[in-house]
Amino acid sequence: MAGRIRDEDIALVRERSPIADVIGEYLQLRNAGGGSLKGLCPFHDEKSPSFNVTPARGLYHCFGCGEGGDVIRFIQEIEQLSFVDAVEHLAQQAGIQLRYEHGGRSSRGDQGQRQRLIEAHRAAAAFYAERLLSPGAQEGRRFLSERGFTRADAETFGIGFAPPGWENLTTHLRKKGFTDKEIITAGLASQGRRGAYDKFRNRLVWPVREVTGEVVGFGARKLDPEDDGPKYLNTPETPIFKKGHLLYGLDLAKREIARNRQAVIVEGYTDVMACHLAGVPTAVATCGTSFGEEHAKVLRRMLLGRSNQGGEVIFTFDGDAAGQKAALRAFDETHGFSSDSFVAVQPDGLDPCDLRIQRGDGALRDLVASRKPLVEFVIRSRIVEHNLDTNEGRLAAIDAAAPIIATIRDAGLRQEYAKDLDKWTGFMDERQVLRRVAQHMGRPEGERRPARGRPARRCRRPGRPMSPPTTCATLHCSASARR
Ligand SMILES: [Zn+2]
To answer: Fewer Cβ neighbours under 10 Å: the N or C end of the chain?
Structure first.
């Protein structure tokens, strides 16, 4: 067994990695009294915090799923790392030079794979960033300045340039001691018949960082219109690049997301930049995939901070058909999302980056401020598919939208949306609309009493026998929001 990390170094890593700070990178912790902190457990699904951290003892424990241990164990579990990888990860963050048994400094073979891949990315990011200033990167610099980004902005986001040619980065990394296998595993090069060749060529590159700030991959935009590759090329799935949960910009946005109780989901790397620079520092984007359940979980842990009140998740979409489709898909995927979901639609179809260029920073802040509840957006999308000039059309619109309203858990809110549906369709018969909604819930008459006074406190699960017991945490449920 070569390369065991010395025990005293492991102890030092524990000592220099305050557990509350380390865990606080992944979830919001709030005071739980008695010297302990609590938050939403990252290891199981929950809506109220049962994950406890006791800084004085350097331990965490979840009363929900039983997970627990010290800071190293936490990193092992959350990053899915071996013990050695986890210690190296923490040592890196704390600036500790580890020593190994059988020989002073760490030699390559001793290090865990993850650490090697992270180091390759650090070297690659530095290489690309330096190339952005080279004469060959003129096109890349022009792309940025045309989109309103300065050199300082490029530095803030670590933007770089992957030069044309097949082996620029690969050669650079080989000289730094990385093997072809490591470079390929990292997704920085592909395997060709005569060895490794650069994955990104003649592209502008955005480093994608983990929530901890480590670069784990890149998004790369082509600069040459003749290039027949895709406009955006992302790092493929690797041991450290997991598209399903990565959110571009989250390392920069996480504090603001927790503070403002708001996260804004945009589509691209330049949109994230535009938002942050325009005073919307809570913007993040997925990396070449649609917003999914894992992304929602990551955000939820950031949003549920000092109180249990969920924050706002605001999806921005183009007003065009594709944007609408994306919003509807988000609606499907945010079921089970305890935070309230909103949509901000730019009617001209301008994405946040273009909006900032054409109308300035204020327009971008206005776009976010103009958000509408996602459920309203979805109902209206259903309505416009029908001809409201005829009785048949109005009735069809109501039947199309009623199932949506029936999914709203809060009886008071459901009633309000039913009234809105009546108004928006010009049906002029609230009771009839309410009856239609109730039919979709499979509920008896008594449910439809007016929502005066207190809104429902207990969650009302729909009468359908198949509904899962977790529905009280779904969209717009007052029970979960108030607990
Ligand atoms: Zn748990």
So the answer is: N
